[in-house]
Write a structure and sequence with these properties.
Strand content: 5-15%
Bound molecules: nicotinamide-adenine-dinucleotide, (2R)-2,3-dihydroxypropanoic acid
GO molecular function, one term: hydroxypyruvate reductase [NAD(P)H] activity
Largest sheet: 7 strands, parallel
Shape: globular
Domain D-isomer specific 2-hydroxyacid dehydrogenase NAD-binding: 109-286
Protein name: Glyoxylate/hydroxypyruvate reductase B
Number of helices: 12
EC number: 1.1.1.79, 1.1.1.81
Strand order of the largest sheet: 8-7-6-9-10-11-12
InterPro entries: D-isomer_2-hydroxyacid_DH, D-isomer_2_OHA_DH_cat_dom, D-isomer_DH_CS1, D-isomer_DH_NAD-bd, NAD(P)-bd_dom_sf
Order of helices and strands: EHEHEHEHEHHEHEHEHEHEHEEH
Amino acid sequence: MKVFINKRIPETGITMLEEAGLEVTIPENDDLSREEWLQYCKNTDAILNVGANAFDHEFFEQCPIVKAIALFSVGFDHVDIKEATKRNIPIGNTPDVLSRATSDVAFLLMQSVSRRASFYFQKVKDGNWGNFDPLYELGQELYGKTLGIFGLGRIGFEMAEKCKKAFGMNIIYHNRNHNEEVEKELNAKYVSFDELIEQSDVLSIHANFKVEQSNLFNASVFERMKKNVIFVNTARGGFHHQKDLYQALVSGQIWGAGLDVTNPEPIEDNDPILQLSNVCVLPHIGSATIEARNGMARLAAENIIAFSKGEKMPHIANPEVY
Ligand SMILES: NC(=O)c1ccc[n+]([C@@H]2O[C@H](COP(=O)([O-])OP(=O)(O)OC[C@H]3O[C@@H](n4cnc5c(N)ncnc54)[C@H](O)[C@@H]3O)[C@@H](O)[C@H]2O)c1
Ligand SMILES: O=C(O)[C@H](O)CO
């Protein structure tokens, strides 16, 4: 069986595939245009995909030979799941192995913004250490504050747990369903969306993205948040309206923002948000640790190998395919 991988992944995954007797193709140039990428996809049985290439109507029409797709990500918002399922194509993903690393980044962004760390680091790099000033660009402490989690799944839980342990934060959450275990374990309280945005001192997004939720966090939501709120998004940039977020930050309607994901991605070079002292932006590095990336490679390879043996993929985004 032929497997196309569009970008090199940790060796462990490639070795697993080769030892399973699969024919692996990885292009020399791994920065493929859409056309080049489609060309490779047309000639393969299975795809191990790194990145946000859209598996949309065009893809499924042009690549009828593809029988299985293993994503090198937990998120699958770039895949038309209905269409894949209709065509009996299992879509594998990589849950759990990146939850710690991604929640670490949410925690890091929260702290970086609360103490203006990236702003001050830039000043030092610019040779502008500055004099001790009792009133200049002060941070705020997180002890005992309220953390609101939007989407309390695997990553949201780990973020809530860290914030509880490190800062004794009160946890409120809004999710598709109640999670009684989490309520008991972290003394977390389920709230409505309105309560979440009105009561949080830190609001951290961890839901999986669907296009219907584009720009859910927009001007009308930012204006109802607390003035001291730190807005953290490590889920998908599509959840927030980038210009409305800028306005809310620059007008002091909200206190700060930590973003590992932006809208659009990559962020535009001239996005004025990059000039603000109350913002920290990272280039989508949630899962960028050796441990998480090795785990992702292993899970993605397990998915492809299971498929090649006629077995169910063990980590799957569309279990209804079986
Ligand atoms: N920044 C990164 O590098 C990075 C890394 C990994 C994952 N992610 C993102 O994080 C997301 C979450 O990953 P996970 O493993 O925790 O997923 P998960 O499925 O375990 O958790 C998502 C939770 O969000 C809830 N949810 C979805 N839509 C909602 C809505 N409209 N209202 C309320 N709750 C809603 C779901 O019920 C679920 O409990 C991924 O889908 C991905 O987009 C980003
Ligand atoms: O969803 C994920 O796993 C990350 O965002 C990497 O794409």
